[in-house]
Amino acid sequence: MGVAKAHQMNELELNLSARQIALDAGALQVCDWDHDEPFEGDEDPVEAYKLAAVLWKSGDPLASGFGTLRRLTDRIKTEIEACGDSCSLCDRRESE
Ligand SMILES: [Zn+2]
pTM for this structure? Predict the structure, then answer.
């Protein structure tokens, strides 16, 4: 282990930060009911990577905790891939 950093984030915070960047970029979105289950947005995932790079360069707290830009974009990729193309909570409700 290296020297502890001031903005060390835990796994949950890293996931939420990556998700937030994807949401801000439009690569992920949430439904009109504000369910906490993001799904694929209208924008290409590339837009999230671009936003990540901008935040990384500006030292934004959302990005800086990842240590490297590569770790940030990898995490965003994982978050987007884990999401479906519609709100899973709404889908579940409709099928009941
Ligand atoms: Zn929903």
Answer: 0.86
Distance 36 CA to ligand 1 centre (A): 8
Where do the domains of the chain lie, and which CATH numbers do they carry?
Answer: 11-95 (1.10.10.1920)
- Residue 69 Cα, ligand 1 centroid: separation in angstroms? 31
CA distance 24 to 14: 15
Residue type present at position 20: Q
DSSP class of residue 67? Answer: S
Tens-binned pLDDT, residue by residue, of the chain (96 aa): 455 455 567 999 999 999 999 999 999 999 999 898 899 999 999 999 999 999 999 999 999 999 999 999 999 999 999 999 999 899 988 887
CA of 19 to the centre of ligand 1 (A): 16
Length of the chain: 96
Distance, CA 34 to ligand 1 centroid (Å)?
6
